[in-house]
Structures are given as C-alpha cells and as structure tokens.
C-alpha cells in the first residue's frame, strides 16, 4: 500500500509539473488542459470514491498552492471530479475503467460536471455568463479530453467496448 | 445508538467526506484575501519561482540554438550599425569644421568628395569628384576645416588628382606663426612633415603653429599646416631640424574644398619681369 501511495504521490507531482508546463506553453486563450483533474479521475477509478475524493482535495490544494495561487478552486473542482468519477469505479474491473478509452469519456463527464459546479466561482463578476461557460466549462472539457485520449493512446491499451 | 451511527457512517462516509472537503474548499476560496491565507500563498509563490525556473531552464535548452543564431545575427547588425555611426560621427565632425572654414574664408570654395587614395613609394595622392566642369585648375590648393591637404596636379572633366603634403615631391612655403620664420614644408618621417630652411637663430617651441606663408605663389597665406612636434639644432647645420605634426589626417578625409585661388596678377608680372632682367 505504501508503495502504491508513493507511486500516486510521484504521479501527482508529475501531473502538477506537467500542468505548470502546459499552462505556460499549451494554453489557448487562457484555457489549458486539466492534467491534475485527469490524475484525480484516474486515481478515483482505480482506488474508489473515498480515496479519490481525499486524493482530489490534496492534489487540488497543492496545485492551487503552487500553480494558480488562488487557494481552494482546483481542490473544489478535483473533489467534485473525483466524486463523480467514483461512481464509475468497479472493484473487480479496475483496468477497464482506468486504462481504456472509457477513461476518456469518464474524465470528460467528471470534468464537465466539476467545471459546471465551479462556474459560479469562475464567472463571479463576469457579465457574460454564457461566454464563461463556453470558454471554461466546454473549452476546458474538450481540450482536456483530447489529452485524455492521447494518454490512452500512449498507454496502448484499447478498450474492447470502443 | 452507536451501532446506528456506525452503520450510517459506513453507508454515507463518501458523502460526508465529500461534503467536508467541499466545504473546506469553499472556505479556502472565501479566505483568499485573508492575511493568514496570503502567508500560505507566499510560500506557494516562492516554491513556484524555483519550479518555474526549472521549467524555464528546460524551455531555454530547446530554444538555445535558435536564440544563439538570432543573437549572432543581431550582434552582426549592431557591429555594422556601430561602424556606420562612427563613420557618420567622423564625417559630421569634418563637415562642421569645413562649414566653419567656409564661413571664414573669402576665396571661392568648391566642395569635393574623396573617391580614391593612393600612397606608395613616397607618392601620396587623393582623387576628388570635381574637375574642369567645376572650374578646377591645376595648382589649386585643397583644404579642409583642419588645414591644408595639398594642391591639384591633374584635372579631367569630372575628377582631379591632388598631391598631398605627405607626397615626397610636395614643396610648400610655410611660416612659423610665433617665430615669424619662413621655411619649406616637405614630407618627413611616417605621418610627419619636416620644415626646412629655418635658421637656427629663431626660437622654436613644441606646439608652435605652422601655416602657409605669404611667400607662396600656389596657396594663400594663413592656412594651417600643422604644429611643431619637435625642433632641435644639429651640430654643423645652420638650419633647424623641425618636425611638424600635420593638422589634417590624410588617411581619413572624406571631403574637402578646392580653393579657387588667384594670386594677384600684378605681383606675378612684376616678379616675372625682374627675373627676366636679372637673367
């Protein structure tokens, strides 16, 4: 278990570093792929809802602390995403959800719901609510899903359900 | 009761933890402007600065080659620009002194640009872009704002060849301003002129100005030639040895004036007549 925890910690640090790098170099009109959210969704699919929620909060908190400097927002999004992803957790078939193309749509649904939940915070002070929805909720979900697909491709494991 | 609570927790623990962490996240969002939270943000900011430095270093590594090429090109352009600016500054300085000279001189001056230079085996010529079409004649003196350059020795329609003072065949009557002594200026050691035929009885000091003499039939009097750099008496010689530092830098002039100087014809006629008589 300790080995697995250390593995997740390492993966989480890598996700935050990649997130920082992508924020600088792959951001399109302030929209960046949420690698940290992909990480917490992955953990929730492998370890279950409770573990995923706790991991989501910790990863989101460190992401906020080190990348956005606006404490609470990413932890909020990551907790919601982990919570949603936790419903797709299947104890007997972890590989199916976490390492196949199912991962792409599960992460897309989780991210969309979490971004939607965070919309009142993100759009506070904005006049055009719909624009913010399109830009940050839809935009981030689509952009992150592309990266989720790339991750699945790189893993080289295709789902028998696709 | 306890059993009921534990059963409730077992069933709803995910929701309870979710609600707790969500509330805590909300709490963090709402306290972003608090002093305590700012302290935490500062810690994060400091840590990120190290992180960013590392990320930037990785980015820098990939762009290093192209950046280096860009900087090399920029450097070459700047060197070229520096050379142009330096050239323009020198030219500007020369033109300023020439302008001042033109305002102070009575004789007609024709502005001319240097288009060629030749200096070998004691010969030192400069070619200018003015000629017969500009009323330039053989013998006309050529000057800059700093002093005398030489005299015209050949003219074509659009160009003229000038023998500078550094030429081994150049002979110009000169005068020491302070001592009121006349002599002849000829080319001396490298970069220097020599003033000959100045009697030892004159007191000559370093820095004394040498100008053209009124005895000259080629150039008008009072044009600066240079300044004395050394003067000494050689045993057994009735004349002084005088080295003169030329006022004009012959290697860097880019423009000059050709002076259309006419010596009073009456004086020339008189001289010619008396010489004939003497013969």
Structure description:
The complex is a heterodimer of chains A (162) and B (279). Chain A is mainly α and 162 residues long. In chain A, 77% of the residues lie in helices and 0% in strands. Chain A has a single domain, classed as Arp2/3 complex 21 kDa subunit ARPC3 (Orthogonal Bundle), CATH 1.10.1760.20. In chain A, helix 1 packs across helix 3, helix 2 packs antiparallel against helix 3 and helix 2 crosses helix 6. By secondary structure, chain B is α+β, with helices and mostly antiparallel strands. Chain B has a domain of 153 residues: Beta Barrel (Thrombin, subunit H), CATH 2.40.10. Chain B is 41% helix and 27% strand. Chain B starts with a helix and ends with a helix. Classes of the chains: A mainly alpha (162), B alpha+beta (279).
The most extensive interface, with participating residues per chain, is: A-B, 29 and 28 residues
Count of the separate structural domains of chain A: 1
Give unreliable regions of chain B as ranges: none
Q: What would the CATH topology of chain A be?
A: Arp2/3 complex 21 kDa subunit ARPC3
Number of beta-strand segments of chain B: 12
CATH homologous superfamily label of the domain at 109-261 in chain B: Rod shape-determining protein MreC, domain 2
Looking at how many chains there are and whether they match, the oligomeric state comes to heterodimer
Order of helices and strands of chain B: HHEEEEEEEEEEEEH
User: How many helices of chain B does DSSP assign?
Assistant: 3
Helix count of chain A equals 7
How many runs of DSSP E, i.e. beta strands of chain A?
0
Largest sheet of chain B: 6 strands, antiparallel, barrel
Shape of chain B: rod-shaped
CATH topology of the domain at 109-261 in chain B: Thrombin, subunit H
Please state the structural category of chain A. mainly alpha
Q: Could you say what the CATH architecture of the domain at 109-261 in chain B is?
A: Beta Barrel
Write down the Rg of chain A.
15 Å
Mean pLDDT of chain B: 84
């Amino acid at each position: 278990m300790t080995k697995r925890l250390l593995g997740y910690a390492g993966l989480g640090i890598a996700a935050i570093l990649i997130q920082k790098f992508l924020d600088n170099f792959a951001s399109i009109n302030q929209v960046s792929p949420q690698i940290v959210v992909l990480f917490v969704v992955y953990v929730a699919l492998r370890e279950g809802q409770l573990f995923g929620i706790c991991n989501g909060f910790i990863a989101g908190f460190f992401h906020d602390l080190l990348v956005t400097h606006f404490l609470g927002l990413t932890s909020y999004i990551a907790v919601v995403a982990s919570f949603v992803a936790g419903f797709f957790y299947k104890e007997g078939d972890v590989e199916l959800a976490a390492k196949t193309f199912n991962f792409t749509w599960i992460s897309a649904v989780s991210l969309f719901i979490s971004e939607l939940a965070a919309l009142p915070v993100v759009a506070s002070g904005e006049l055009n609510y719909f624009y913010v929805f399109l830009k940050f909720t839809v935009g981030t979900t689509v952009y992150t899903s592309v990266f989720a697909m790339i991750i699945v491709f790189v893993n080289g494991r295709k789902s028998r359900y696709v | 009761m306890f059993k009921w609570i534990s059963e409730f927790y077992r069933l709803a623990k995910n929701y309870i933890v979710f609600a707790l962490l969500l509330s805590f996240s909300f709490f963090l969002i709402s306290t972003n402007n608090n002093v305590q939270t700012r302290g935490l943000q500062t810690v994060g900011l400091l840590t990120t600065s190290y992180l960013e430095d590392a990320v930037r270093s990785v980015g820098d590594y990939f762009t290093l080659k192209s950046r280096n090429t860009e900087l090399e090109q920029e450097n070459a352009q700047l060197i070229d620009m520096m050379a142009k600016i330096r050239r323009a500054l020198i030219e500007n300085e020369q033109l300023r002194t020439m302008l001042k000279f033109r305002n102070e001189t009575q004789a007609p001056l024709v502005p001319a640009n240097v288009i060629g230079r030749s200096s070998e085996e004691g010969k030192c010529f400069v070619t200018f872009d003015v000629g017969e079409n500009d009323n330039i004649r053989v013998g006309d003196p050529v000057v800059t704002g700093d002093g005398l350059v030489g005299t015209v020795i050949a003219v074509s329609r659009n160009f003229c060849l000038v023998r500078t003072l550094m030429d081994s065949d150049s002979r110009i009557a000169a005068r020491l301003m302070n001592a009121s002594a006349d002599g002849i200026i000829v080319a001396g050691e490298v970069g220097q002129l020599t003033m000959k035929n100045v009697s030892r009885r004159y007191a000559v000091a370093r820095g004394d100005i040498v100008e053209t003499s009124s005895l000259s039939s080629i150039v008008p009097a009072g044009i600066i030639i240079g300044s004395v750099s050394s003067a000494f008496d050689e045993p057994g010689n009735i004349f002084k040895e005088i080295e003169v530092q030329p006022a004009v830098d012959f290697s860097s002039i880019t423009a000059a004036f050709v002076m259309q100087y006419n010596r009073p014809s009456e004086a020339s006629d008189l001289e010619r007549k008396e010489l004939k008589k003497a013969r």
